[in-house]
Amino acid sequence: MRAHPGLAAEATGELLELRPSGSWVSLNVTELENLTRSASGKVGNAKAVKLDLGAVSEIDTVGVWLLEKLSRSAAAGGRLVEMTGVAENYVGLVEEVRQVNRRDIAPPPRQNPIVAKLTDLGRSTLGAARDVTVFLDMLAALSLALVRTLARPRSLRVTSLVYQMYRIGWQAIPIVVLITFLIGAIIAQQGIFHFRRFGAESYVVDMVGILVLRELGVLIVAIMVAGRSGSAYTAELGSMKMREEIDALVTMGLDPVEVLILPRIVALILTLPILAFIGSMAALYGGGLVAQLYGGMGPAIFIARLHDAVSVTHFEVGMWKAPFMALVIGIVACSEGLRVKGSAESLGQQTTTSVVKSIFLVIVLDGLFAVFFASIGL
Amino acid sequence: MEHLQETSAIRVTNLVVGFGRQIVLNELSLNVRRGEILGLVGASGGGKSVLMRTIIGLIPRRSGSIEVMGVPLGGAAERATQNAATRWGILFQQGALFSSLTVKQNVQFPLRENLQMSQTLMDEIAIAKLEMVGLRAEDGDKFPAELSGGMTKRAALARALALDPAIVFLDEPTSGLDPISAGDFDALIKTLQQTLGLTVFMVTHDLASLNSVCDRVAALADGKIVAIGPMSDLLRSEHPWVKAYFHGKRSQMLQPKVS
């Protein structure tokens, strides 16, 4: 159905006559580009150029632009250019394309590569400092909102709080139990395997008990909550920011921190210790099960040894860390959510940042707690 | 020329579309002629957007047939539809510009995906399209989030026109624009329709643009096209919904033209 495009060139004396033919539409653009490129090479010696579009069966913006570009480059060399034979229904298009691309666009200023590197370095340093201020800002806003809510307890959004606890606590229990159970089992198995060489298998109970209650239980659960609920908080608040829902709250005289963020973070602080407790129990159960099946240590002995090895202090140390980790996860997740800008890309970027940053901070916090508890002798 | 005017760009026959138990379009038939601007009006939630989205293949139909430029279409993923898709451009209500690309890259996107051309030519074509819709070349380097409402519509129109389509679908092109910008946008659609020889299928509530731009207006009520014709015919229509639509308080500015 479509005629093959062509561009016949005929030079008579100083006049070059160009006759495009066939279908000059974007579907044939690769050929059209080659045709016009070779034609512009022939323009060289001519004093005048005549473009006769009489044989063109159909043409669109791309075709017209290529011919227009050809005639502009010819005219730029001081040649006389004439375009004839434009079919009636394409006159408007040709006129329109004549107007476009007339202005020179200033190329973006080139930057010295060393200066650019230094600028980048400065930007990221400032960015790191800004991260700290954003965190502190959110902490302050949260404390203010908390104080205000404590002064008027009825303004606490109980429905929202309960719903968030259901979502991030109750619904997370199966996966938390499964993963901590497996981790407890793996630690016990590895312990038995290696301790067996020294005949010290029974110390596996000490290792599993202390490790799980003091460190791993809460750490694993916090990392899972950061990935599961922290990312959800960032994405929710981010898309609310994109759809101007947060601006709407502000214009109604409500504080988004009080309405949206306080219930979320309080829910995290209340549920993370519970999840950490459930997770620790599941890990101990996993360890006990492996001790029985793989190490041949009955449940009664396991529990008796656990009783000797673990003191309440270990358990307390683990549980004390949980609410602080929840606070860090919540603040990072919510403040990153509020930093989302208009695009879908920035939502994804901020969610990634939120998860990476909260996991990093949780581990750093765990280290600080280890130092702290060691120095007060717990 | 005469026989070209007569052939239809879009022919919808006995189309039925429903969700669950609800039937939205019931045995609807519609004929859009080549080279005309057809305005589609209808109650909010009455199925205007559903009709448009069904034609472009985003919503599956229960029965009936759709022909675009004489080619029968299937769903959005089918080959016939995808081939047809290079012959139409769609302006979504919110623009639907890709937010991670600049305006220029948005316009170049269909070119890059469907055709093979040099980057220089692609840049020139993109700027040409932007200038044709009344944006400046500098605006091409902005991101969609940095554009105003009117500029977003224009940029989205430039993207819809990227492949020089034969048909353009516009979903409420003037909604959210002030009357002056809306008028400018109407004039732009009219000019582009004349220069590029487009067929325009326009869903709109804007009585002014129905009156000034559209060659014909179709009214959708109860899942059917209840009236179709030039604006003056619709103003004389006896159908109760059409009467209420065009003779309500908000449309009294159109009254003196009938009588």
Largest sheet of chain A: 5 strands, mixed
Helix content of chain A: over 70%
Mean pLDDT metric of chain A: 88
Ends apart, CA distance between termini of chain A: 87 Å
Query: Structurally, how many domains make up the residues of chain A?
Result: 2
Describe this structure in words.
The complex is a heterodimer of chains A (378) and B (259). With 378 residues, chain A is α/β, with parallel strands linked by helices. Chain A has helices spanning 29-42, 61-76, 91-99, 113-151, 158-168, 173-195, 203-242, 245-251, 256-293, 299-309, 312-338, 344-375, and strands spanning 6-12, 15-24, 48-52, 55-59, 80-84. Chain A is 71% helix and 8% strand. Chain B has helices spanning 2-6, 48-55, 79-85, 103-114, 119-132, 149-160, 179-196, 207-213, 231-236, 240-247; strands spanning 8-19, 22-33, 37-42, 63-68, 71-72, 88-91, 167-171, 199-203, 216-221, 224-229. Chain B has a 6-stranded mixed beta sheet with strand order 6-7-8-3-9-10, with helices on both faces. Chain B has a 4-stranded antiparallel beta sheet with strand order 2-1-4-5. The A-B interface holds A 25-27, 29-30, 33, 60-62, 65-66, 69, 89, 92-93, 95-97, 99-101, 103, 105, 341-345 and B 99-100, 111, 115-118, 121, 124-125, 127-129, 131-132, 137-138, 143-145, 161, 163-164, 194-197.
Descriptive keywords:
heterodimer, A: 378 residues, alpha/beta, Transcription Regulator spoIIAA, 2 domains, 5 strands, 8% strand, B: 259 residues, six-stranded mixed β-sheet, four-stranded antiparallel β-sheet, 37% helix, 25% strand, globular
In short:
With 378 residues, chain A is of the alpha/beta class. Chain A has helices at 29-42, 61-76, 91-99, 113-151, 158-168, 173-195, 203-242, 245-251, 256-293, 299-309, 312-338, 344-375, and strands spanning 6-12, 15-24, 48-52, 55-59, 80-84.
